Amino acid sequence: MDLSFTPEEAAFAATARAWLGAELADAGLPASFESLDEEIDWGRRWQARLAAGRWVGIAWPQAYGGRDATPVEVALFNMEYARSGALQPVNRVGINLAGPTLLAHGSQPQRERWLPPILDASEIWCQLFSEPDAGSDLASLATSAEPGVDDAGRSGWRVNGQKVWTSYAQYARWGIALVRTDPEAGKHRGISYVVIDMTAPGIEIRPLRQITGESEFNEVFLTDVFVPEHQLVGALHGGWAVANTTLAHERGTSFPFKEQVVHEVLFERLCDEAMATGRFDEIEIADALAQSFIELRILRLHNWRTLTRLGRGEEPGPESSWIKLAWTDMTQHLSDTAMEVVGPSAPLWFGATPVHASVEADLDEGSPIGMWQRQWLWSKAASIAGGTSEIQRTIIGDRILNLPR
Known about the structure:
Helices cover about 45% and strands about 15% of the residues. The chain is built from eleven helices and eight strands. The strands form two sheets. It has a four-stranded mixed β-sheet. A four-stranded antiparallel β-sheet has the order 2-3-7-6, with no helix packed on it.
């Protein structure tokens, strides 16, 4: 394991740190947002700043607005970004999923049309993959696409079906979607990958209220939605191969590095609160904090191992599933410890401005939730997001331990 960075990598991180610090000071990140609409509006302006400085999609080719950054540089930037406390780019699906997929499988006209507005967030993207009855078996999707024409005589497909857990669908201009174009073929072979205009007739978006009180997730209903031929990405019926590119980026290497730093910052803040309230001297609290410290250090060591492999030009292997499991346990344990530190005030607003001042949680007479309460509620999704813990354990058993199926 290489525990050091090259002078060039260290200089890259320092440049990113300085730029982020200066731009954040000038942009003036609000302490809270009155609504999700306000947060998205501010996020668009902030991402436009990032794009102007070429700090969005930095792994993309320079010809498309990126920096040709190496995997190590991408990881370093994500760590510096998390440490800065900046709002995450609002167009994450576009940057991390749609963009790389278009670079790998899109036509030149598709890249020229769709890539530039992804970077500056002038067009937000969403992901239309998950379905209510497919669960973790994505290839069991039922949304159909049948050949048809629109009123202008253009050839394409009429799409009918339902998608779920679609983040920011209510703000999206475009959606990457998997649809079944050949119902007679095997479930992996009859799928196509298309880009859907989220403003097209026949689309209905229903927000899903989450346990935190927020509603960035949505159900999306598609009724006879027309998709023209030029919005097919890759080969007809060849969408599963294209989707694997998207999924590889969704479960890629950026996430654990960002989350490591985010949780290190949270851990330091939690220790400060425990000291300020006198709870640091309680044996149970001290032990829980020590356990969280150990789990964070283990995650950091595995991230360094991944960086070492990336620096040697090696691709991450199935051990990324273990890292996902380690992160899940770490964030849930740390969140539980935070509730212990907060103590009797745990069900109430405590010590921080709510993420959205208008959000009310059904915890105690509608009191708005504070930072630690929201973190605890959000952590419950960690064992589902990015691939369930059951899926990760299956991968570990099959591909690392070579256990029988």
